[in-house]
Specification:
Elements lengths: L2 E4 L9 H5 L5 E3 L5 E8 L2 E11 H11 L1 H10 L11 E5 L3 E4 L1
Antiparallel strand pairs: 1-2, 1-6, 3-4, 4-5
Helix pairs in contact: 2-3
Length: 100
């Protein structure tokens, strides 16, 4: 199964110090290898190619290496823990390296 390695700080709603903690981590790709994510930058949408990973797996890996950043997700985005949801994080391809 393919993985990605986060090689640079990804964009997102989390504070920069939390997003920095993803750098260097390797995460299994979700079943759908990639997607397009529309990001709003200023007033026009921009389409960005992304890799998708399972949120629960990603935060588990983050917790093993950077527990304070994983705690931020626990405290600020608790919906990812809902057992009825299968949420995903989208990491832009430009912030990742595809590895096997």
């Amino acid at each position: 199964m393919a993985k990605i390695r986060i090689v640079s700080v990804p964009p997102g709603a989390a504070p920069e110090w939390v997003r920095r903690e993803w750098v260097g981590l390797e995460i299994l790709l979700a079943e759908d290898v990639s997607s397009n994510l529309s990001l709003l930058t200023s007033n026009k949408p921009e389409s960005v190619e992304c890799y998708e990973v399972d949120v629960k797996e990603a935060v588990k890996i983050l917790r093993g290496k950077r527990p304070e950043a994983a705690a931020w997700w626990d405290e600020n985005r608790p919906l990812w823990r809902n057992p009825l949801l299968v949420p995903r994080f989208s990491f832009p391809k430009e912030n990742c390296e595809l590895i096997s």
